[in-house]
Amino acid sequence: MNGDEVDTRADAVECLAEQATDLCHLHEHVTRVIANLDIPTEAFSDYDNPDDARFPLEGIVKLFLYKEARGFGQQETARRLSGAAYVFVRFDLPRAPTQGGISWMWRNRFDHCERGLIKEAADRIREVCEEHDVVDRHEPALEPEDIQDTGIEEEQIMQAVQRATDLGFEEFKDPRAANAKYALQAYFERQGYLNMVKAGATTKRRRFARLSDRSEVPHGSSHNRTMKKVADPDPQTDLWDFADGTRRDEWREIRDAVLPAFHAGVENILDEIAGRDRTGIREPVNAAFDITTWPYWPSPFRDEENVEWWEEPVEITYSGGSTREVYPREDYPEMVSGVKESHERAFKFATLTIVAEGTPIVLAIEPVRDRRGWESDDLDTRTRGELVDRLLEQAEQHVDINKVFADREFDSYEVRHRIDQHDAFYVIGKRKQAEADRVAIEKTVKHEAADASVEQGWLTYEGERQPVTFIYVPKDTAKDEEEYIEGDYAIFTVNAHVGPDRGIGLAEQYRKRWTIENEYKTIKKHFLPTSASSDYRNRFLYFVIGVTLYNVWRLANFLLRDEVDVDLGEDPPILAGEIVELVGFCLFDPGG
After folding, report:
1. Which residues are CB-neighbours of 130 under 8 A, at least 6 positions away?
2. Half-sphere exposure of 169 (CA within 13 A, CB side)
3. d(CA 59, CA 36)
4. Crossing angle of helices 500-512 and 514-522, rounded to 10°
5. β-sheet bridge partners, residue 366
6. pLDDT confidence of residue 410
7. Which pLDDT value is given to residue 239?
8. Are 366 and 248 spatial neighbours (Cβ–Cβ below 8 Å)?
9. Is 212 exposed, middle or buried (0-12, 13-18, 19+ CB in 10 A)?
10. Cα dist. 101→73, 83, 96, 321, 325 in Å?
11. Residue 16 confidence (pLDDT)
12. What number of helices (H) and strands (E) belong to the chain?
């Protein structure tokens, strides 16, 4: 080995290790880290005639990095490549190599020096992943022995996913002319694939084309244009659009264009559950409000060099009381606003989800339009009360609502009033704002026997009066998030007069809603594609598709449990990281 070879090998190893360090901040598993590496192919000689290779060099290098980093033998590697997770797709391979093929390529496609490079790089990648705690996690797939032990066969898995996919996506319609080049299904196939691999819409067509049985597939730019058109408002207007002298906000029209298909899917899913279970989802249901954020990184303010001399700045005031003069961008997306207790900004989406073991179906979605610090107070934005009202109206199309849970994001008189108008019972987290809260907590702490207390009162809003009880309970460090705790106590409100025992029980029910928080982390982590788009048509449609994928995941697991006559335990038999890939294979045929 000469000096140049040593330098090339060291540089390649260092290059891959540095990439892995960056990717560990974006991905939760070593498989995904390796799949997203840019391989320095110049460090490998490969065949004299690379056109003869059946498998691309970059994909094969990733395969062996995966094998060595995970510590697998050839047989285990071959099994995982072709398993339910379709790992070979991640590595951009046309199909899963056999064990014999893996052995042959290791001996014939790499020389001694290159095999050493791969092993050394794999060791570094494993070390980096261990430092970031992304190695010792379940592979995002069902193992064959798991399938055997539970009585689940892959065919049953795919049948459940196919049925759930058909129901969830059945009602999305093609708004374009009949002679459009590609059927809308092709675009949803591509979007399903983008969600599947966390890729953006500029993903190369060749990867998608290999998985589709269509003779032609849509280009990324064509895909973006079509997704916008799917979410385009109806160009026809009614007189009520101009009732107040102005037309409705575009985001409202985008919402109205997209949500009917989502609600048709929700109704299909609920009907399927009811048809297989005599009780279905027991009504009236309990449900939880939540707001999911999707980060948008560009600043809303212009640099001074982009400001004309005659322009006047706008003064904004921060929550701590400090002020700042800024020059807002005129083209900044109106649906992007600040994230609470953070300097980040994001698109926001409000949701209402059933709180039920095994079937936490999302019932409703609403855009969030908050006022930004540089905007006038009389701007037509949306209060949390208006969001709650719209979400309940949507959900009541499908089910009767008994009780709703909400965190301090929804702590307002208007929210409580709106929920009470829907004849629903609420449990809402409360900020410690009043002196009465401090006094009640101090009194509870000093009590000789009780560690929880209630205070009863009345709430009057817009001339209407409702009973209210303030519940003070010790914080639960295992279930309560720190931002919702004041001192050592959490505060909740309910729209009824209740005693201490029931108050404690309601607080415990509220804490179970944190499972909904975890579900929305799942949506953001597994079901939303990478997107830098500022166009709300794209963002809202992407989010609705992501939530639909989530509902499909939940239904598929319900169907699988219904079909398989064994105890599958508490955890869902199909994992979130797996369902997005299986749905992708249901939306389009991967070919032979």
Report:
1. 136
2. 26
3. 11
4. 10
5. 350
6. 93
7. 39
8. no
9. buried
10. 13, 16, 9, 66, 64
11. 92
12. 20, 11
Kindly state the greatest CA–CA separation across the chain. 87
In the chain, helix, strand, coil percent, each to 5? Answer: 50, 15, 40
Q: How far apart are CA 530 and CA 498, in angstroms?
A: 46
- Answer whether 563's CB lies under 8 Å from 151's CB: no
- With residue 577 as reference, give the H or E element that holds it: helix 576-587
Look at residue 139 and give its three-state secondary structure: coil
Contacts of 263 (CB under 8 A, 6+ apart): 394, 397, 398
Are 120 and 536 in contact by the 8 Å Cβ rule? The answer is no
Alpha helices in 311-402 (DSSP H): 384-395
Q: What is the DSSP letter of 523?
A: I
C-alpha 67/C-alpha 32 separation (Å) is 13
Q: Cis check for the bond before 284: say yes or no (omega within 30 of 0).
A: yes
Residues 6+ apart with CB under 8 A from 34: 20, 62, 65, 66, 69, 91, 125
Centre a 10 Å sphere on the Cβ of residue 70 and count the other Cβ atoms it contains.
18
DSSP 309: T
Instruction: Return the structure tokens found at 410.
Output: 């929804």
Instruction: Read off the tokens for 13.
Output: 């190893």
- Per the CB < 8 A criterion, the answer to whether 500 and 454 are in contact is yes
CA dist 529 and 242 (Å) reads 36
Residue 22's SS3 state is: helix
Provide the token pair at 175.
């708004």
Chain centroid offset of residue 475 CA: 28
Structure tokens at 95: 């199909």
The whole-angstrom separation of Cα 354 and Cα 558 is 14
For residues 454-490, b (16+ Cβ closer than 10 Å) or e, as one string?
bbeeeeebeeeeeebbbbbbbbeeeebeeebbbeebb
Distance, CA of 150 to CA of 230 (rounded, Å): 41
Q: In angstroms, what CA-CA distances link 213 with 186, 205, 264, 494? A: 10, 13, 28, 55
Which pair of structure tokens corresponds to residue 46?
A: 């490969």
Amino acid at 388: V
pLDDT along the chain (592 residues), means of 10: 58 90 82 87 69 76 92 81 63 82 89 91 90 63 38 62 79 55 51 54 51 57 65 53 54 88 91 73 88 88 88 82 86 86 83 84 93 78 91 95 92 94 93 77 75 88 92 69 56 92 89 65 70 83 86 82 50 62 55 38
Six-digit token pair at 97?
């190599």
Place of tokens 């759930």: 164
Helix (H) or strand (E) holding 426, with range, is strand 425-429
d(CA 520, CA 351): 10
Give me the phi and psi of 237, to 5 degrees please: -120, 155
CA–CA separation, 500 vs 477, rounded Å?
21
How far apart, in whole angstroms, are the C-alpha atoms of residue 326 and residue 244? 31
Residues in the chain: 592
Please state, in angstroms and rounded to a whole number, the distance separating the CA atoms of residues 264 and 166. Answer: 12
Distances (CA, A) of 460 to 6, 210, 404, 415, 484: 78, 62, 20, 12, 25
| Helix, coil or strand: residue 314 | strand
Residue position matching structure tokens 């020059």: 327
Phi/psi for 108 (5° steps) reads -110, -20
CB 348 within 8 A of CB 292: yes
Tokens matching residue 290: 């939540």
